[in-house]
Amino acid sequence: MMDSYEQKSFLSGLTGISKISILIFIVVIVFGVFIILKEDDGFMTDEEEVLQEEASQEETAGEETLNESLNDSLKVLDQEAGDSVLISEMSLTDNRWVVIHEDMNGEPGNILGARLFTKENTTGEVQLLRGTGEGKLYHAILYIVAERERNQDRLFDTDRDLPLVKEGGDIRIASFRTF
After folding, report:
1. Do 88 and 169 fall into the same domain?
2. Full-model pTM
3. Are 32 and 100 in the same domain?
4. What residues make up the domain containing 166?
5. How many domains does the chain have?
6. Is 102 helix (H, G, I), strand (E, B) or coil?
7. Confidence label for 67 from pLDDT (cuts 50, 70 and 90)
8. Does residue 62 sit in the same domain as residue 100?
9. Does 76 lie in the same domain as 35?
C-alpha cells in the first residue's frame, strides 16, 4: 500500500485569526512602501502645487512691498461724511488698491470700501459699502495688488492683497476726518 503524502501549505497550520493578522501585516507593509515611493516621485499633487504657488505669490508680493513702494504716496483731505471718499492726490508705481478703514482706537479697523486704481490715476473716489459718520477718523491705505489681480478679476481679497509698507515697515496710510 502506498503511503499517501499530503502536502500542506504554510498557512494551513494557522488559525483564522493568525491568517488575518499576517494578511493585515502584508497589506500595511505594501501600503507603506507605496506611500514612501509616491512621496519621492518628484511629482506634486494639485494641492501641493496650489500651496507652492500661493507661497510664491506671497514672496513676490513681499519683494514688491520692499522694492517698489518707496515712491507710492497717497493724500486724503478732511471731508464731508458720506458714501464715498475723495482721494486728493496719489502717485502709484503700479496698480494699487486704495482701501478705506474706519478707526479703531487709533488703528485701522473695519474696511468700508476699496477701489482698484491704475498707476496713471492721480486722484479718485472710493465708493463705500457703509458710509462714513460725521466727526470721525478714517484711514485710507494702499494695498499691493495680488498677482491674480493683474488678470482683471478686480476683486479685493484681504488674504491676498497686502498693505503696502514703507522701508521701515510702516504701512502707507493717509488718515482723515469727516465733518
Report:
1. yes
2. 0.61
3. no
4. 47-177
5. 2
6. strand
7. very low
8. yes
9. no
Tens digit of pLDDT for each residue in 11-33? Answer: 566 676 777 777 788 888 887 77
Side by side, the strands of the sheet bearing 96-104 are 107-117, 96-104, 137-144, 173-177
Could you tell me if residue 7 is inside a domain? Answer: no
Of 56-70, 97-111, 132-146, the one with minimum mean pLDDT is 56-70
SS3 for the chain, per residue?
A: CCCCCCCCCHHHHCCHHHHHHHHHHHHHHHHHHHHHHHHCCCCCCHHHHHHHHHHHHHHHHHHHHHHHHHHCEEECCCECCCCEEEECEEECCCCEEEEEEEEECCEEEEEEEEEEECCCCCCEEEECCCCCCCCCEEEEEEEECCHHHHHCCCCCCCCCCCECECCCCCECEEEEEEC
Cell for 123?
A: 486722484
What pLDDT digit, counting tens, does each position of 110-152 carry?
999 999 999 999 999 999 999 999 999 999 999 988 876 565 6
Is 123 found in the same domain as 104? yes
Residue 25 and residue 95 in one domain? no
For residue 129, tell me if it sits in a domain.
Answer: yes
116 plus 140 within the same structural domain: yes
Length of the chain: 179
The share of the chain scoring above pLDDT 70, in percent, equals 69
